[in-house]
Amino acid sequence: QLQLVESGGGLVQPGGSLRLSCAASGFTSEHYTMGWFRQAPGKEREGVSCVDSRGGTTYYADSVKGRFTISRDGAKNTVYLQMNSLKPEDTAVYYCAADLIPTVVVSTGCDGMDYWGKGTLVTVSS
């Protein structure tokens, strides 16, 4: 059965760091574009970062560029999001997503994902 399970969320102070993990099962994630989205209270879900199946193209939202890094470990079938210099406006539920039916053009953004995890909450507050 296909599954994406996020972990690593929690409460962190402004300026701190967290690493989110997305463990895939039922498919080999390194064959697909994968990404991270987030949804803050009262706002639309937005694409944060994604990476293509070859690992050669990445996308970052302007709001996180230079602070967040997406990576993947094929042996562990896991995708990560390293989040540094966190700000209160980063507070959101973060979702892992997969482009199982190829649609996403990573060079232009992350829209088009078709399989989702249940999310992990990140709260940035002092």
Structure description:
- The chain is mainly beta and 126 residues long.
- Helices cover 0% and strands 45% of the residues.
- The strands form 2 sheets. Strands 2, 4, 5, 6, 9, 10 and 11 form a 7-stranded mixed β-sheet that branches.
- A hairpin with a 4-residue loop joins strand 7 and strand 8.
- The chain is globular, with a radius of gyration of 13 Å.
Structural class: mainly beta
Question: Could you name the ranges where pLDDT drops below 50 across 5 or more consecutive residues?
Answer: none
Shape: globular
Biggest β-sheet description = 7 strands, mixed
- Beta content comes to over 45%
SS field, number of helical segments: 0
Helix content: under 10%
Number of strands: 11
**C-alpha Rg (nearest Å):** 13 Å
Distance between the termini: 40 Å
Instruction: Let me know the average pLDDT.
Output: 96
SSE order: EEEEEEEEEEE
